Amino acid sequence: MSRRSVLITGGAQGMGSAFAAEYAANGFDVILADAQSPDSPPFRQSAQKAADNGVSVLARRCDVTSPAEVDTLFDEAWERFQRLDVVIANAGTMALGETWNLTDKQVGRTLAVNLEGVWRTNAHAARRMLEQGWGRIINIASIAGVVGVHLHAAYCMSKFGVIGLTKTLARELHGSEIRVNALCPSPVKSPMSETAEFIVYMNRMLGKQFRNPREMYADPAARFLEPETVARMAFWLGSSEEAGTFSGREIIMDLYCQT
Q: How far apart are CA 224 and CA 114, in angstroms?
């Protein structure tokens, strides 16, 4: 039997890199896709960290808003590994602002990446997994897909949509050996959380004066999850017998207890 494989979008850094490292450490070959070039320092580091575990790594540039690029990614991954056991739809973006101040461009881009990109990834994953007769699809949603979050209208729209997609696809695949679930973490230590815009947002929400990510992460009030913690949960969802007993669920990892 050939080695199992995992395909991860948004795999160049942050949670995507942590997912790759966790699966590689447990013997999975890894397909990493990201809008960044594989030659960028973060992407090279992510791929090398996975490869250091002795598994095969395929790193490719792929913009999930491009049908042609996603087609090419899945075709190449299938040709290379002849199987796709786990697909993690992780690519994402964020636009912050009051609902009435967001622009069409901000909302359109967020939905194109976070929702349409996940649908496109799921569609390809489902076709391949139906062909092989088994698989696990893990959609990275957010606590913002379960509750409203101030200044996150576009992000919440997209992540609520991801959960709806997850539940629908799980029903469509009922009776097969394919499971589809959504992972919904509260804020995670990642490049998305380290922008100047996001630090301003956290200062506003918490009444703080963080000057940089290091100060923000060190404050207990901020309560950020470690990417490795989320990665271990994603590995359990993708590999354990227990996680094969349910589908169409949103698994909430919420340090803020918002639900």
A: 21
Query: What one-character DSSP code corresponds to residue 258?
Result: -
Mean pLDDT computed over 143-153: 96
Query: Do 67 and 118 form a contact (C-beta atoms < 8 A)?
Result: no
The residue assigned the tokens 């808003």 is 65
User: Active site residue: 155, 201, 217, 256, which one?
Assistant: 155
Q: What is the pLDDT of residues 42-92, one digit of tens each?
A: 999 999 999 999 999 999 999 999 999 999 999 999 999 999 999 999 999
pLDDT of residue 133: 97
Gap between the Cα atoms of 216 and 193, Å rounded? 10
The tens digit of pLDDT for each residue in 213-223 reads 999 999 999 99
- Is residue 228 within 8 Å of residue 18, measured between CB atoms? yes
* Residue boundaries of the structural domains of the chain: 5-187+226-253, 189-224
256 is a catalytic site residue: no
pTM, full prediction: 0.96
Tell me, what's the pLDDT at 256?
A: 72
> For 226, which DSSP code?
P
Phi first, then psi: what are they for 74, rounded to 5°?
-70, -35
User: What's the CATH fold of domain 5-187+226-253?
Assistant: Rossmann fold (3.40.50)
Name all contacts of 122-127 with Cβ < 8 Å and 24+ positions apart: 122/87, 122/89, 122/165, 122/169, 122/180, 124/70, 124/71, 124/73, 124/74, 124/87, 125/7, 125/74, 125/84, 125/87, 125/89, 126/169, 126/172, 126/173, 126/178
> Which candidate, 67, 192, 74, 81, places its Cα nearest to that of 126?
74
Output the average pLDDT for the chain.
96
Radius of gyration (C-alpha) of the chain in whole angstroms:
18
Residue listed under structure tokens 């940089």: 212
